[in-house]
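Run log, item B.
One chain of 543 residues. Sequence copied directly from the ordering sheet:
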Amino acid sequence: MYRLFMMFLFFMILSCSSEKRALNQDAKGMENLAGLDFTQSERDTMLQTLSVLRGKYDTLRTVELPNSIPFPLYFDPRIPGQVIPKGRENYLFQEFPTRRPDNIEDCAFFTIGQLAHLMRTQQVSSVELTEMYLDRLKRYGPELECVVTLTEDLALKQASRADEEIRRGRYLGPLHGIPYGAKDLLAVPGYKTTWGATTHKDQIIDETATIIKKLEDAGAVLVAKLTLGALAWGDVWFGGKTRNPWNTEQGSSGSSAGPGSATAAGLVGFSIGSETWGSIVSPATRNGVTGLRPTFGTVSRSGAMALSWSMDKLGPMCRSVDDCALIYSVIKGTDGLDLSVVDVPFQVPIKKELRSLRIGYIESAFNDTNTAENDRGVLTRLRELGFKLVPIELPEFPTSSLSFLLNVEAAAAFDEMTRNNKDDELVRQVKWAWPNVFRTARHVPAVEYIQANRARMILNQKMSELFKNIDVYVVPSFWGDNLLRTNLTGHPCVVLPNGFNEKESPTSISFIGDLYKDGEVIAVSHAYQRGTGWHKKYPPKFK
């Protein structure tokens, strides 16, 4: 008996010793990752505390944290002293008088301004438009792999209601009766919200995303939920790879792949996308459409999949800047659900004020891209329009070193997937895909995450200084670190087509505005676009 007791005690001591050695090795590994070097004495002192912490982590993991639970520390892009603009809104939408075409399908590529005129004057009914777009979605959607779910029943009900309201003289405005598509990370009751991922392909969320509700209240008609790369990365989803209508051998880019493809191919009147790091800018470029990434915290994300609480933004993808401006005027504003959102008046400079705006440009950026000729043409056009162009340089900052902020927040949003090995079910399983990114992010120390956000405040301060000397700046869409930089700082961006490359694929240019000055960046980009015809060109195969 004594011998058995001693053997038990020996193995207990050995087990404790083994656990201690394992914790010691773990601590050393984390030290190396964090760039630290503790003494063995310091390390021994930490071990008991680390064991206690591990127990706390295990307990916390018993708390259910669905994706809809927000992060309680809200990102605010403002620096101390920076105020939110006040005053009355002055945005007015302009219709474009248009006659009904002999073939209703000729309306497929009309702007909202044209469709609104036809609708208001009752030359075209919403049911007619809706059936036309539904037919095109059924005909071309499979080839483009851009549709997750047709919301046909809902669309026809909304269209019938719109027609009845308009007949009775209850016209709600320029979106009344206009069919649109939404990226399938936005919740719509009764329909699947798949997030583009195999793991969620049968998911139904019993709520209406705020942006969907606002568009519904404006009379818009939801005809389809459109594809996104799985969990908002790329153009590969559980059903395939979304295609670019200009070249169907090519992907649509992501992650707002479906909205970009469907809008370009004339399958919807407009669409709603989202951007965390390029997910509106990139597919808008690839598909030759116009996109607006609003200032962070001006459009509610309630009912949308969370990827990064401090970087996610929802915005329109349309045929023109005018269309984007209209959608923004409807979807912006607080809802009491997304507490990061503030109310900001939509103020667009009038013609006289517009010419006084200072437009910055980075001279070197217009010489070292493979679209330099198209990009320099933008500068020429702006000068012809009478704008004062001011040479600038973006403030020096190691922007790329902050990119892991997105990875950490995404890993937290989908932590359960990693723990249950559900990430193995995602289609993409390469180095730069979510499964590996989620796993890697678990090794980022919390202190480094906090320090990176503090450094992010310095970046915001530097960008604020830049905007003291200019009002808007223009830049090739993928030049340098600008795309990551302005997604981290929350600045608004309009991306629009500016020509074609040697392979006859669309190219784009981006206009960046100061925080909450979405009206200024929209006005400048509209002035440029109005003098070009790039946004009026459509993929021949789908015309």
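Observations after the first pass:
- The longest strand covers residues 493-500.
- The mean pLDDT is 94.
Flagged for discussion on Thursday.
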